[in-house]
């Protein structure tokens, strides 16, 4: 089956620069925020000779191992969590006469792959040749449903080209820990723990399993069903044998040119605590069955495709004048949407659901680089992502207490279940800015959506508890003749420095966090229920206000630049030009201390502040910061270039803005960092969206009214997108010399373009600005 689709939304194999198998496994993943399946050679299964890293990832399904420290001090994180890699659900076994893909070497060539992002359907054509030179085409179509997040569908079509013989198709998944053979020394790639257990659930007419983890004590039910086949397709039957092989098989006589189809729907359950999974497995299984029984691959695909169409209707970004980057932008948005957890219990792993890089952990990447995309285009998803932080707030409070603090919440730098999972605490746990990043995101979401219920019942508590953390962590000190509030021994966003005093980014974000707490306490004053429930006192809030006002922000007056941290100016610069390209990223080739003692940045750090808090900055200040930090930044983190693009656009460095943006936006599709094989760079894909919105469209973030100052690249004729604002939806069409805005639905609002404010209402839904 082919659905007619538009080439502007398709990723064809021919258009990809790299055809490397592991890279293709990532690019052609399908996912939906609950599950993600890497592409693979579908005949390999758990074959130990296969050079690939296929598998199924379920968001939030992980196990852990104890971190082995030489010397473990109090409060060091105990465990390293790693997302589990389950069996490859694409796997199928095919026998041709006496030849068997399980035991004989069938040669599998990629002829075509096409990911249709409008429908979420991955269509692939392989040419398969047996050792005795019998050849058949194998078409594999697959999708992860967006309409039922537990459903994954795969469909096979077998078309012999040069033989007539008996063919047997067998679909059995009797192992759970997928073997991978990818040898990679990169520290950012995690080793699979491979500790899951697969138990068959007593026969119910289709293969059903309970998959459990050893240490994290989680359980998930997985079941799959073959669609009933009617002529001309041969019947397919369920079987089980004494070796606990449960599955489906079909045997038929194949002839050249005649296609036979086999389709399967998987239902991949939610994660439960092991004890519940054991106790209620029948109940969970029967609700899963409802998703896949009495339906078909086609109906589920259609339902999911419809959700994708709605996604594009609201979230697409159209660039007229840059077809190559346009495709990258769409790929990025598609991947973001495939990666976002939507159950309030999960977030977006740094690699999406496309690999186990960074252990499958959630970082600040979600709140700072990806959440804005969702807040502006799918506010419900943004809320769900923030609710993950709310549901783990108790753990964050526990962690603060374990750390030795009397109050407040200390969110983990990296986690799956809410507990800290950074084995290298210097560049991990010490990145305390995560607390203020989350508070920043809460505020940003609220400003964009006006979601009162959220801020009142959840968001405020996050802001308050994180603000309390800063009051516990910081202290007053006399600096430059003033009594100032300081945050010493913290690690900022730049991971080429650690444990510094007064990181500019951290201090500004903490100041913002404290001010937010004060602002919301004022808002909820008189609403005693909230403030007394959270034990807020006037003294506490006055202390927060004072600390925010007294926050020390290191500044180099001679150079007029915001200092990355106190005494940063005393470090020598690293001669980056003299370092051979093969030595980048530096983190893989230098001892961390060699980096920490130099002025060298892995990624935007102080410049992040200029991006996130544009108000009050002169263009001269932005320029001074940019010109100071850009030459010492390696952009070894994929989160960096898009942010530099934004500042470059704001200070009129048009060519640099475009260059940085185009590299950021191509991160995965063009494999800019040569490691897309390990999974997508989800944060970078979100950052590229920010590059368009905050850089080229010039949205001013956190403003009380929505304003923009566009700086389109000169080759772009027009940029179009829609955003949700205060519950309404607006469509923006930006040309080189004008902006048109249309109220698509809702009550209307003020929009400001180049400082000129206009009011859009249902009676006056269109306005144009010329400049
Ligand atoms: O969160 C990032 C960090 O800023 C740089 N190292 C990788 C992390 C995960 O993407």
UniProtKB/TrEMBL annotation:
Signal peptide: none annotated. It comes from the Bacteria. This is Maltose phosphorylase. The gene is mapA_1. It comes from Lentilactobacillus parakefiri. One of its GO terms (molecular function) is glycosyltransferase activity. Keywords: Glycosyltransferase, Transferase. SUPFAM superfamilies: Galactose mutarotase-like (SSF74650), Six-hairpin glycosidases (SSF48208). The keyword Transferase applies. Belongs to the glycosyl hydrolase 65 family. Substrate binds at residues 364-365, 602-603. The active site is at residue 495. Residues 706-757 form the Glycoside hydrolase family 65 C-terminal domain. InterPro entries: 6-hairpin_glycosidase_sf, 6hp_glycosidase-like_sf, Gal_mutarotase_sf_dom, GH65_N, Glyco_hydro_65_C, Glyco_hydro_65_M, Glyco_hydro_65_N, Malt_Pase/Glycosyl_Hdrlase. Residues 330-690 form the Glycoside hydrolase family 65 central catalytic domain. Residues 22-179 form the Glycoside hydrolase family 65 N-terminal domain. The keyword Disulfide bond does not apply. GO terms for biological process: carbohydrate metabolic process.
């Amino acid at each position: 089956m082919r659905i007619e689709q538009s080439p502007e939304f398709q990723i064809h194999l021919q258009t990809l620069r790299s055809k490397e198998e592991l890279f293709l496994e990532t690019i052609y993943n399908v996912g939906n925020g609950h599950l993600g399946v890497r592409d693979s050679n579908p005949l390999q299964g758990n074959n130990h000779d296969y050079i690939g890293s296929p598998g199924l990832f379920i968001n939030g399904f992980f196990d852990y191992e104890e971190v082995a420290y030489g010397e473990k001090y109090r409060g060091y994180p105990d465990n390293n969590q790693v997302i589990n890699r389950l069996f490859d659900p694409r796997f199928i076994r095919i026998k041709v006469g006496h030849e068997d893909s399980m035991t004989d070497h069938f040669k599998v060539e990629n002829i075509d792959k096409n990911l249709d992002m409008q429908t979420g359907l991955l269509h692939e054509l392989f040419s398969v040749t047996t050792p005795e030179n019998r050849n058949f085409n194998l078409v594999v179509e697959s999708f992860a449903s967006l309409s039922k997040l537990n459903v994954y569908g795969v469909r096979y079509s077998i078309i012999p080209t040069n033989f007539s013989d008996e063919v047997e198709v067998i679909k059995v998944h009797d192992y759970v820990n997928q073997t991978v053979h990818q040898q990679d020394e990169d520290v950012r790639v995690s080793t699979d723990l491979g500790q899951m257990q697969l138990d068959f659930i007593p026969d119910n007419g289709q293969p059903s399993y309970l998959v459990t983890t050893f240490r994290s004590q989680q359980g998930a039910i997985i079941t799959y069903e073959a669609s009933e086949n009617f002529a001309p397709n041969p019947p397919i039957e369920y079987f089980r044998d004494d070796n606990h092989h449960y599955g489906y098989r079909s045997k038929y006589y194949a002839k050249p040119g005649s296609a036979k189809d086999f389709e399967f729907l998987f239902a991949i359950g939610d994660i439960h605590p092991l004890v519940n999974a054991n106790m209620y497995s029948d109940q969970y299984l029967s609700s899963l069955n409802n998703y896949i029984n009495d339906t078909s691959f086609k109906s589920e695909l259609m339902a999911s495709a419809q959700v994708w169409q709605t996604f594009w209707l609201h979230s697409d970004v159209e660039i007229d004048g840059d077809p190559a980057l346009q495709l990258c932008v769409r790929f990025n948005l598609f991947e973001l949407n495939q990666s976002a957890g939507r159950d309030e219990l999960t977030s977006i792993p740094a690699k999406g659901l496309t690999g186990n890089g960074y252990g499958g952990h959630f970082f600040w990447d979600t709140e700072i680089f990806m959440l804005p995309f969702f807040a502006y285009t799918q506010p419900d998803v943004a809320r769900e992502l923030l609710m993950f932080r709310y549901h783990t707030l108790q753990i964050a409070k526990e962690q603060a207490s374990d750390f030795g603090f009397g109050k407040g919440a200390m969110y983990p730098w990296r986690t799956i279940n809410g507990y800290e999972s950074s084995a290298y605490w210097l560049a991990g746990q010490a990145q305390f800015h995560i607390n203020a990043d989350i508070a920043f995101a809460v505020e940003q979401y609220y400003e964009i959506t006006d979601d009162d219920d959220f801020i009142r019942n959840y968001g405020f508590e996050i802001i308050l508890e994180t603000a309390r953390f800063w009051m516990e962590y910081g202290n007053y000190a006399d600096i430059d003749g003033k009594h100032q509030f300081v945050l010493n021994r913290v690690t900022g966003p730049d991971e080429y420095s650690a444990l510094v005093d007064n990181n500019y980014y951290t201090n500004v974000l903490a100041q913002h966090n404290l001010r937010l707490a004060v602002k919301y306490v004022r808002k909820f004053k008189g609403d005693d229920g909230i403030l007394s429930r959270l034990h807020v006192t006037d003294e506490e809030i006055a202390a927060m206000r004072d600390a925010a006002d007294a926050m020390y922000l290191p500044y180099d007056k001679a150079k007029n630049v915001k200092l990355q941290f106190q005494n940063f100016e005393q470090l020598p610069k690293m001669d980056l030009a003299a370092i051979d390209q093969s030595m980048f990223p530096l983190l893989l080739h230098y001892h961390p201390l060699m980096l920490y003692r130099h002025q060298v940045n892995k990624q935007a750090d102080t410049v992040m502040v200029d991006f996130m808090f544009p108000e009050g900055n002169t263009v001269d200040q932005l320029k001074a910061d940019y010109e100071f930090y850009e030459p010492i930044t390696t952009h070894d983190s994929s989160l960096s270039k898009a942010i530099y693009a934004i500042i470059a656009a704001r200070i009129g460095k048009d060519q640099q803005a475009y260059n940085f943006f185009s590299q950021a936006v191509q991160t995965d599709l063009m494999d800019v960092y040569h490691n897309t094989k390990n999974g997508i760079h989800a944060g970078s894909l979100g950052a590229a969206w920010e590059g368009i919105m905050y850089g080229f469209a010039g949205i001013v973030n956190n403003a009380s009214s929505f304003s923009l100052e566009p700086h389109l690249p000169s080759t772009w004729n027009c940029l179009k997108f829609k955003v949700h604002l205060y519950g309404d939806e607006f469509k923006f069409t930006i040309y080189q010399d004008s902006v048109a805005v249309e109220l698509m639905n809702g009550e209307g609002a003020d929009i400001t373009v180049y400082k000129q404010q206009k009011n859009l209402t249902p009676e006056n839904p269109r306005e144009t600005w010329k400049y």
